[in-house]
Structure formats: C-alpha cells, structure tokens
Design goal:
rod-shaped; 88% helix; mainly alpha; two-stranded antiparallel ribbon
C-alpha cells in the first residue's frame, strides 16, 4: 500500500480531499446538523475530519517538496564534490607540469653548456685544420720547388 501511497501522490491527495468532502456532505445530509460545538467554538458539522485530511494532504505535499529539495541538494553536493576532486587533480597536474618545466629548463641549460663547449672545440679544431692545411700546402710547394730545381 505504501507504494500506491507514494507513487500516485497527487492523485492520492485529490482522492483524500474528495473523501473528506464526501464525509462532510454525507454527515450534513444524514444528521441534518449544520454545526458542531468544539470548545466554545461552533464549526461546520463534520469539519474535523476534513481539517485532518487537509492537514495530512499539506503534510504530504511538504514532505514531497522536502524530498525534491533534498534530491536537488544531493545533486549539488555531488557536483561540488566532483568539482573539488577535479580541482585537486588539476592542481596536482599543474604542480607536475611546473616540475616538468623546471627539469626541462635545467636540461636545456645543460644542453646549452654542451653546445657552447662543442662550438669552442669546433673553433679550436678548425684553427688546427687551417694550420695543418697551410703546413701541407707549404710542404707540397717546397716539394715541387725541389723537384723542379733538380
């Protein structure tokens, strides 16, 4: 019965309201009594049941509204938690990226030092090659001169 009670909530409320009105009109018709006396107050005959039914309907409506609000708040909480986890992951990635950039910069400066050393070695080897080329050229010219004079 609780499934029906919660599944068709609006329909159940309308049915309860109709039952309440039927009870009130039925008691008015059968008793032919217009009013009841309640603690020095006169109220329409049979209104007590109707008031209780409408109070129950209001309570059920508020309960459904709070359930819907709780679901919305749960969705919001889950979204916020997901965002916080994603933010933490992004911050960790940012830290990793920053470390990677620092390593790359350090490796780059090491490569630049090696490149400068290679350029200095190339300059030194080029000078030696020039000296050796001039020496070989002088030996060749001397050999030609000696061979031509003999």
């Amino acid at each position: 019965m609780t499934e029906w009670w919660e599944r068709g909530a609006e329909r159940a409320d309308k049915l309860m309201a109709a039952v309440g009105w039927v009870l009130v009109f039925g008691s008015w018709i059968t008793d032919r009594q217009i009013k009841d006396r309640l603690a020095d107050v006169e109220v329409p005959h049979g209104a007590q049941v109707t008031i209780l039914i409408f109070a129950l309907i209001g309570r059920r409506i508020r309960s459904r509204q709070w359930t819907e609000a709780a679901a919305s708040v749960n969705e919001l909480a889950e979204a916020l938690a997901k965002r916080m986890v994603e933010t933490d992951a992004r911050q960790q990635e940012l830290v990793d990226l920053q470390g990677s950039l620092e390593r790359l910069a350090h490796e780059s400066s090491g490569r630049e030092e090696i490149l400068v050393a290679l350029q200095q070695s190339l300059t030194r080897y080029t000078k030696w090659l020039l000296v050796l080329t001039v020496a070989v050229a002088l030996i060749g010219v001397g050999t030609i001169v000696i061979a031509a004079t003999h």
